[in-house]
Amino acid sequence: MSKPKSLQNRFHLLHPIIQAPMAGGVSTPELAAAVSNAGGMGSLGGGYSSPEKLREEIQKTKALTSKPFAVNLFISEWPARPDDRAYEQMSAIIGVYRKELGLSGFAPLSSEFEIQDEQMQVILDEKPAVFSFTFGIPSASWLQKFKDAGIYTIGTATHLAEAVALEKAGVDAICVQGSEAGGHRGTFIGKIPDSLIGTLALTSQVVSKVSIPVIAAGGIMNGQAINAVLELGAEAAQMGTAFLLTSEAGTNAPFRKILKTDRTLATTITRAFSGREARAIVNRMVTEMKEVEVLPYPYQNALTRELRTAAAKVGEPEMLSLYAGQGASLVREMSVQKLIETLAQEMQGSAGLT
Ligand SMILES: Cc1cc2nc3c(=O)[nH]c(=O)nc-3n(C[C@H](O)[C@H](O)[C@H](O)COP(=O)(O)O)c2cc1C
User: Does any ligand 1 atom lie closer than 6 A to the CB of residue 226?
Assistant: First the structure.
């Protein structure tokens, strides 16, 4: 028996499509607003944003749309700062790449990572319709504050035990992230390499065991795939890679160039750029760093930030985190409006075949 589509009704969405949050400059206010204006739900990826920047981006998005949108954060306890020896070893390795791009010295390692409470406070103040999160679960007191403020919460699960934990914690909906998904793995129970379950299997497992709405993510690139996860009982599809080549996305030029080649056919899970497992298109740095013991997230991320910024500036894709899912070769270059229209048409076109 199919469940009532509470999520789509609640937010008056024309289409059961959520644009995935993509922190690091990809999910711009323009992208999120365009998706919401086109009848889906846009998301801002605030994981790396300072509280001030996050507030600015939310306000900018509000100015561009009156429709509901989501704001996403990384919620986790970070491991202790690595010791000086580990930091110096990693700095020396990153230094080789830095030198090639004309950057001198060692990369700075900021220790100001504990900003989650301030970020969540910004969300409470600004009250977007939805707060989504990954890498963990906010404390019970924070979840209660979001509930009291009428903000809908969506947690990320990569396997059944996480979905059950999210439901128990009282979140409103669960985004299940299949192993095909681009970007960081959301895993917070058990080891990440042991939690790589395909989107179809994961969606079916979670839908059968939890009673709150399930959103499916990972490798969903067209309307037919959206129909497939709806058929399995998901209430919506969350899509990231599909939006990377839209005109409104903040995807940088060298990444856009790679997305138009058959390099998209080779993705892998890597810790090279951030220290946390993420699916990315294979490039030189992914290959060369395979055997290297990198620093844990968020320290590796901080250590490679300047390098990645410089690489984007000079158009060097081999030192960039090209985060994308296994469906990346199906990515389409068009405006958000056109992409959402196309997805909706595909959903209608393939509906009769089932
Ligand atoms: C470039 C990129 C950045 C991402 N950043 C985030 C993020 O900040 N927060 C988050 O919850 N998920 C993030 N994700 C993962 C998405 O939420 C989602 O799981 C994934 O995009 C779904 O798979 P797909 O890329 O194949 O559509 C990111 C994905 C990509 C491709």
Answer: no
Strands 42-45 and 69-74: parallel
Confirm or reject: Cβ of 155 under 6 Å from ligand 1.
no
Best substitution site from 28, 41, 73, 134 to test ligand 1's pocket, by max atoms within 8 Å of Cβ?
Answer: 134
Query: Which phi-psi region, left, alpha or beta, contains residue 136 (left: φ > 0; alpha: ψ -120 to 50)?
Result: left
Element of type H or E holding 256? helix 253-259
Whole-structure pTM over 0.85, yes or no?
yes
How many angstroms is it from 19 CA to the middle of ligand 1?
9
Which tokens belong to 250? 């903040």
**Residue having the nearest C-alpha atom to atom 15 of ligand 1:** 183
User: How many CA atoms lie less than 13 Å away from 240 in the CB half-sphere?
Assistant: 30
Measuring from atom 29 of ligand 1, which residue has the nearest CA?
Answer: 183
The tens-digit pLDDT sequence of the chain (354 residues) is: 445 578 999 999 999 999 999 999 999 999 999 999 999 999 999 999 999 999 999 999 999 999 999 999 999 999 988 999 999 999 999 999 999 999 987 777 766 678 999 999 999 999 999 999 999 999 999 999 999 999 999 999 999 999 999 999 999 999 999 999 999 999 999 999 889 999 999 999 999 999 999 999 999 999 999 999 999 999 999 999 999 999 999 999 999 999 999 999 999 999 999 999 999 999 999 999 999 999 999 999 999 999 999 999 999 999 999 999 999 999 999 999 999 999 999 999 965 444
251 lines ligand 1 (CB under 6 A): no
Is the shortest distance between the CB of 23 and ligand 1 below 6 Å? yes
Instruction: Compute, in degrees rounded to 10, the torsion defined by CA atoms 46, 47, 50, 51.
Output: 60
Burial of 261 (0-12, 13-18, 19+ CB in 10 A): exposed
